[in-house]
Amino acid sequence: MSTKFFIDSKPITLRPAQQIALGFLMVIFVGSVLLSLPIAQKVPVSYLDNLFIATSAVCVTGLAPIAVVESYTLFGQIVMIFLMQLGGLSLMTFIALMLIAIGSKLNVSEKIVMQETLNRTTLEDISSFIKFIVKYTILFQVIGMILLSFTFVPQFGWIKGIYNALFISVSAFNNAGFDNISTTSLLMYAQNPIVNFTVMFLIIMGGLGFSVWFDVRKSTQSILKKNSNQKSIQST
User: Fold this and answer.
1) pLDDT reported for residue 2
2) Would strands 10-13 and 4-7 be described as parallel, antiparallel, or unpaired?
3) Taking CA 75 as the corner, what is the angle to CA 72 and CA 76, rounded to the nearest 5 degrees?
4) Beta-carbon neighbour count of residue 176 at 10 Å?
5) Helix residue ranges, H only, 36-157
6) What's the pLDDT score for residue 6?
7) CA distance 79 to 41
8) Pair 1, 19: CB distance under 8 Å
9) How far apart are CA 6 and CA 188, in angstroms?
10) Are 14 and 4 in contact (CB under 8 A)?
11) Neighbouring C-beta atoms of residue 31, cutoff 10 Å
12) What gap in Å lies between CA 199 and CA 152, rounded to an integer?
């Protein structure tokens, strides 16, 4: 995962923070190009607007100069889902996950980059932490999608309802702020408890941060293991 550039045949190695920034810039640029393709647009959208949307999606701010539902096709919205997911998890996390999946171990420099990316204070359990992040991200987003489907499927039908539930679930969990339902965001669901509580749940769980989940899980496992050992000692 180390990144090197050559100037006058001399290698220049980027520091972790520089690699992270470069990764974000690359994702934003590729996203803006994909959103600029005719297949991604319902109506002509300027490159500046596409660049703004890509930046906002990757940086999970939710600011938009145009309405997603009126501007982008299914392809364009799927691109936005990936941009929001990459913004929430970071490109480095996906790269590290692929390396782990193919059986490659992260070296010290790669772990340092991941430590900076994930805002960890230690290099310990970085690989386990990455797997944990992806597993629980998928878990919470699937739960959100299922709950939102109870409202969206009756309204939009099975395929579009589940897709809309997925888009909103990913957006809410990553605190991205985008929606593909209407030009007034989720205003039409202001009195719908399922949509409101599900979106709030996803925002809170995504906003707590991966480190909090990981530490809570480790503490819970430690307490349960300690109690189990005490019961075993008492029974003997």
Assistant:
1) 47
2) antiparallel
3) 35
4) 26
5) 47-58, 68-71, 74-89, 91-101, 108-118, 126-156
6) 46
7) 11
8) yes
9) 54
10) yes
11) 24
12) 13
Q: What tokens appear for 145 in the block?
A: 């999608």
Q: State the residue for tokens 């180390």.
A: 2
CB atoms within 10 A of CB 26: 12
Per-block average pLDDT, block size 10, for the chain (236 residues)? 48 64 86 96 96 93 91 96 86 62 62 62 67 85 96 96 96 92 91 95 85 73 72 65
pLDDT at 102: 58
Give residue 235's pLDDT. 66
User: Distance (Å, rounded) from C-alpha 64 to C-alpha 61?
Assistant: 9
Q: In terms of C-beta density within 10 A (0-12 exposed, 13-18 middle, 19 or more buried), how is residue 97 classed?
A: middle
At residue 178, what is the residue type? Answer: F
Please give the DSSP secondary-structure letter assigned to residue 72: B
CA–CA separation, 196 and 199 (whole Å): 5
CA 188 to CA 195: how far, in whole Å?
10
- For 12, the enclosing helix (H) or strand (E) is strand 10-13
Joined tokens for residue 165: 């539930």
| Other beta carbons less than 10 A from residue 200's beta carbon | 11
- What percent helix, strand, coil does the chain show, rounded to 5? 70, 5, 25
Q: Encoding tokens for residue 31?
A: 């996203």
Instruction: Report the amino acid identity of residue 225.
Output: K
Residues in the chain: 236
- What are φ and ψ of residue 226, in 5° steps? -65, -45
